[in-house]
Amino acid sequence: MENDYLKTKGRIFDIQKFSVHDGPGIRTIIFLKGCFFRCRWCCNPESQEFSIQEMKVDGKLKCIGEDITVEEVIKQIEKDRPYYRRSGGGVTLSGGECLFQPDFAYGLLKGCKDVGITTAIETTAAADFSIIERLLPEIDYVLMDIKHMNPIKHKEYIGRDNSKVLENAGKISEYGSNLTIRVPVVPGFNDSERDILDIAKFSKTLNNVKELHLLPYHRLGRDKYTGLDRNYLLDDIEPPTPEKMEELLEIVNNVGLNGKIGG
């Protein structure tokens, strides 16, 4: 059947409405379970495992993870269509990593496009390109993380090297998507002028890159680690100062990219 994808079932842990981040306009963010990476600073540690988990929130155990069909999600999304229309917004798939559930991600994106809602994905692009290539026709905006250019440093802090990330960045940029590069700026990991310059220079070689966003490290997800009975490995790291972020932003702009703090 033509619309069989609507019956595809996937696993999410949140649907956040009325967001003004992660793409243009007012957006609904769908957070999928499962991720290829284990970033030390991850602010959504409950997203990393695909399994349904329990996390202590405000002293009470909360179930994290819900199995749901594409059709059920689309019904929720369509309620906010007037906000998307007025603001130029739409739906963004986040996580975790949406590519970790490729069939479900495809169904969600196609379902949005079929009812006239614009789409975006927030991704590390650390999947086989055949997966990404299938999704690209259904995506209006790609928000892609590049966390470090050094494969050894990348693996130390994230659990895997960056070879597939950088390779796929080039392929996505050739496809013609609206591509924004995003860099989580983490002190001690990638906050030196050299680190940001290397990422900016690489991003400048890519086609169709509209902007490069610098996302300052924060500790907003730290309590979640306690709730999951996990250690927070960056407890001694302070967030970068506004002055530091402005210095790094100047480097991005000097390379010839449209830089932005946050996003």
TrEMBL record:
Its cofactor is [4Fe-4S] cluster. Residues 21-258 form the Radical SAM core domain. InterPro entries: Aldolase_TIM, Organic_radical-activating, Organic_radical_activase, Radical_activat_CS, rSAM, rSAM_sf. It comes from the Bacteria. Its EC number is 1.97.1.4. Belongs to the organic radical-activating enzymes family. This is Pyruvate formate lyase activating enzyme.
